[in-house]
Amino acid sequence: MTEEDLKDVELPDGMNAETLSHLMEPRNYGKLDKPSCIGVALDEKTKEYVIFYGLLDGEMIKDAKFATNGCQDTVVIGSMFTDMIINNNLDYAHGAIAKMNEKLGSMSAQQQVCADIVFSSFIASLQNLENLQNGEEEELHVLKMKDSCEGENLG
Amino acid sequence: MDKLYQKKHQLWVSINFASFAINDEEIKSKLYDFAQIAFRHMKWIGSDVLERGDNYNYDRDLTLNKRKSVFEVINDLVNTTKETMTLYSNTILSQRLRTDDEYLLEYLSQILKDESNNKEITAFNTRREWLDKNLAQDQIDALTHFLFEELYKEYELILIYAYMQARTTELIQFNVFQDLIDESHFHLKSFGNMMAKMGILALPRELHEMTYIIKDLKQFVTDGIAEEEAAKEMCKELSAAIKDEELSKFFDFINYQESYHIELMQKLLK
Hints:
heterodimer; A: alpha+beta; Sufe protein. Chain: A; five-stranded mixed sheet; 4 helices; 5 strands; 19% strand; B: mainly alpha; Ferritin; 2 domains; 9 helices; 72% helix
């Protein structure tokens, strides 16, 4: 994917075929065995989290995975975001966040919160990388969220 | 981490989802029984692992195989069962697992002998239709969203409760966890079959250890009760949104079950 491709980013606006595909088979879901960095975004109120694993070679994102106990919007956005940034550099990833945020402006508040927790986990992973590069011993870096997802689940 | 536990976990999920995917009611029902047996195997293997002072996790190596015929689904299941059986040892527990799985393989071979069983699989066609109901698109969308959320949630709850049940020494807690596991099995089955009917059957995503290793039971239960209260509202909303009496009554029925889950969970706080 190139910078130009970011213009055509499609986001989950209802139940279209692409959203359904990400729901049925989320991309890059799980853990990386030997990540360069790990970030967690945590909503302390709902206990919802996203954990992000990144494998970097310099500025290049060679691989990425994520996991969450959150709602399906979080899964779809995590799936789309990781798909976009793998094999691209960090500048591209920051651009992808800005572009997705711009498009999410027209979506529900809940979807914005879901997107934010995904992006925050990525930012946390970069903070973890920086800390590790500065010689700190940190297994993962945690960022706490300000807003909560309104989605609820049955038990 | 215990490899046999992981394989049995995968087999349990595979049998469950084969049951959901297949339309023939007799095969569906029989496979579901085998899935329940596989879940008990998981429980026994887990106890054995903990007694040895070892541990297990819920890591999985499963992909969604969107098969198009019953025989393809059954053949996958034969292979998964045989792979699992290679890890059995000579203990009494392993002997039990082996004889159960040999009978499962026998049943699967019987299905494969009868060509009339080889019907089309429609569980993955993504048509999102409920053939005997006349649901508007917004109702179909609401139902789709609900089913994806809840299929995962029920799978998650079964595994979290099972993880805690395996580690408690309190009889009341053990029994409450068992009730909650049984309830979630029923919900998982109901929602899985509904997803298959709509052509959107998918595996629930894998659980990360941050989800199932609970460090503070009281906080987990308190949060869970708040979630159940809110979920009851969601069920009521879906029941009102679905303009079909039969489906609305089903979601009301699920909603009333949630009320009792709250009672059960409160016992964990005493």
